């Protein structure tokens, strides 16, 4: 991965492209030191670094759990226990915030190493594969994304906050902690 980042960074620099490379690092209770080290490495190689509190994923599973459509498994618990902010506390925080539309639909494209594009960066299941950048037009891919009904389910449980509004969630969480409500 590091070699690919260096190659991409050099390519962007050599051709004076306006493209910006960003590594998003999902933070858990147990990887803060690794994140700090990787942050130094990315900055030294001209790549932006964005530490981001890890949230339970894939979003499909989170939605099922928060809609009470599926029980929490032991495998789920292993991940949930590592999160910086537990989902039940996050849900309480999010319920206090004004709902806002998700920005993932229009602000980014989630693409894997094969060029497959997914509904958003939080979906993992192949059922949410909406196209391939090598064989489908971006316009067609975007039309498929916009028509997908899963986004509404995700927004109803506050998914747009889980995945796009970290600072607002943290502030709501700190407010609830100060008020001893969490």
Can you give me a brief rundown of this structure?
By secondary structure, the chain is mainly alpha-helical.
The number of helical segments is: 10
N-to-C SSE series?
A: HEHEHHHHEEEHHHH
Largest β-sheet summary: 3 strands, antiparallel
- The largest beta-sheet arranges its strands as 3-4-5
Specify Rg, calculated over alpha carbons. 18 Å
What is the approximate shape? globular
Give the N-to-C terminal Cα separation: 39 Å
Tally of strands? 5
Note down, in words, how this protein is organized:
This protein has ten helices and five strands; from the N terminus they run H-E-H-E-H-H-H-H-E-E-E-H-H-H-H. With 182 residues, it is mainly α. Strands 3-4-5 form a three-stranded antiparallel beta sheet, covered by helices on one side. Strand 3 (110-111) and strand 4 form a beta hairpin. Helix 5 crosses helix 10. The radius of gyration is 18 Å and the shape is globular.
Topology, please?
Blueprint: H1 2-14, E1 22-27, H2 32-44, E2 48-53, H3 59-66, H4 74-80, H5 87-95, H6 104-107, E3 110-111, E4 116-118, E5 129-132, H7 138-147, H8 150-156, H9 159-164, H10 166-178
Parallel strand pairs: 1-2
Antiparallel strand pairs: 3-4, 4-5
Give keywords:
about 180 residues; mainly alpha; three-stranded antiparallel beta sheet; two-stranded parallel ribbon; about 50% helix; globular
């Amino acid at each position: 991965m590091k070699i690919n980042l260096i190659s991409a960074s050099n390519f962007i620099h050599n051709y004076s492209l306006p493209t910006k490379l960003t590594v998003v690092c999902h933070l858990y209770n147990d990887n803060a030191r690794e994140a700090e080290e990787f942050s130094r490495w990315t900055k030294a190689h001209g790549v932006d670094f964005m530490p981001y509190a890890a949230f339970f994923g894939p979003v499909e599973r989170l939605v099922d759990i928060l809609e009470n459509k599926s029980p929490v498994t032991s495998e789920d618990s292993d991940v949930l226990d590592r999160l910086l902010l537990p989902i039940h506390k996050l849900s309480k925080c999010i319920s206090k915030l004004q709902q806002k539309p998700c920005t993932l639909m229009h602000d980014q494209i989630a693409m894997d190493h094969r060029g497959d594009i997914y509904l958003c960066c939080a979906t993992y299941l192949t059922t949410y594969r909406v196209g391939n950048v090598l064989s489908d037009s971006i316009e067609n891919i975007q039309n498929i994304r916009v028509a997908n009904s899963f986004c509404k389910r995700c927004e109803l449980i506050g998914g747009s906050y889980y995945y796009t509004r970290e600072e607002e969630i943290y502030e709501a969480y700190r407010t609830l902690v100060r008020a001893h409500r969490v």
